[in-house]
């Protein structure tokens, strides 16, 4: 599968001249294995951003290369950015595979070497054997897994450690209906381990002796583990058995998954790659979770599965002052939830009853996240009622964190604005304002002559003047700001509606 990398010409360190095509070709030859004769051509595209090392009229060079090149960036001496490297993106664009869709795969053979944890793995000799299906079938059911955990901060290492972990698997998830999931197709996993070295002063570092009796009486599905490594390994084995398509969590991208992967790396859990579908021996990016590479490392580790974060989705679909699970449970699910802070968790391990209640709280969080997912699916697909013509919207109660601007470009008012070029930049308000001030001054003089102030009559006269509008803008004037903005929005809306009707776009 051929790659087509694109490099931006820049100045060399030793000179102030732009590197030419031959110099960039030599650089690619030294770093691209099994390169063939490079057919470099310029792409007439202006740089979006002018930088000191980039010419104002900088052009990109298209360089074909073999499929064996792993996509390592060229040393930044002659080319600053190398684009078009991922083979998957190139084929997606060529085959029109934009968005989830059914595929028609021809001429496939079973793979002899398995590179993933999938049950069925096949390979094709030619990328052209993979095409988009002619007929769209119904969306298949997806396997979803909801994940929540409880963590504590180790007083010595000052790192977050997992003490309780729960997951709920739904094998009959509906990605289109958005209805309430049935409990008959659900399975759950609840794990807990003793605090061990993470226990602080005055806290038990082992399980109480009567914990098994408490578990048998109130939470039989809860499984105890000797340490954190054994608990995570057991969880990863269950993930491999469930093989979920979608992993769901609340603030999973920002905290849960990052903590889980970092603990796998710290404890050397060999089955960490079960969190994704690709078999891996080492962590991508050496398992660094610093800012800038954290999101990339998490995405690589989850290759083959979709991570759905209800914390992020709720920000897009709901209007709330805060998006914590406690607040959304109260406002969206009408269920009260009690917050348990990480610094308070060690105290819960002093009694068997508290340990079971803590695990029940974690399991309830899983169920709340699953219900919130169903709620967001139905909310996102619900068609909003259209505003009636001439409607004046009443102010909505609540706290606005940002400025709100409502522009209804589908009613009669914008049409009038465009037709008559009505805008604060085109209408002459000066003469109208002068007339209003004269009338106001005359009304004040009459009240003084009469020896009494009749504020009501004076206000009526001023109000009559205020109802008068300035003349319609002259046709020779250029289009104002407001009509131009409205026209642009309407045109873009038409283009988007036309694109949605095309088959190749999803």
From TrEMBL:
Transmembrane segments: none annotated. The keyword Transferase applies. Keywords: DNA-directed DNA polymerase, Nucleotidyltransferase, Transferase. InterPro entries: DNA-dir_DNA_pol_B (IPR006172), DNA-dir_DNA_pol_B_exonuc (IPR006133), DNA-dir_DNA_pol_B_multi_dom (IPR006134), DNA/RNA_pol_sf (IPR043502), DNA_pol_palm_dom_sf (IPR023211), RNaseH-like_sf (IPR012337), RNaseH_sf (IPR036397). Residues 378-502 form the DNA-directed DNA polymerase family B multifunctional domain. Belongs to the DNA polymerase type-B family. It comes from the Eukaryota. GO terms for cellular component: alpha DNA polymerase:primase complex. One of its GO terms (biological process) is mitotic DNA replication initiation. It comes from Triparma retinervis. Pfam families: DNA_pol_B, DNA_pol_B_exo1. Its EC number is 2.7.7.7. GO terms for molecular function: chromatin binding; DNA replication origin binding; DNA-directed DNA polymerase activity; nucleotide binding; single-stranded DNA binding. Coiled coil: none annotated. The keyword Hydrolase does not apply. Residues 92-326 form the DNA-directed DNA polymerase family B exonuclease domain. This is DNA-directed DNA polymerase.
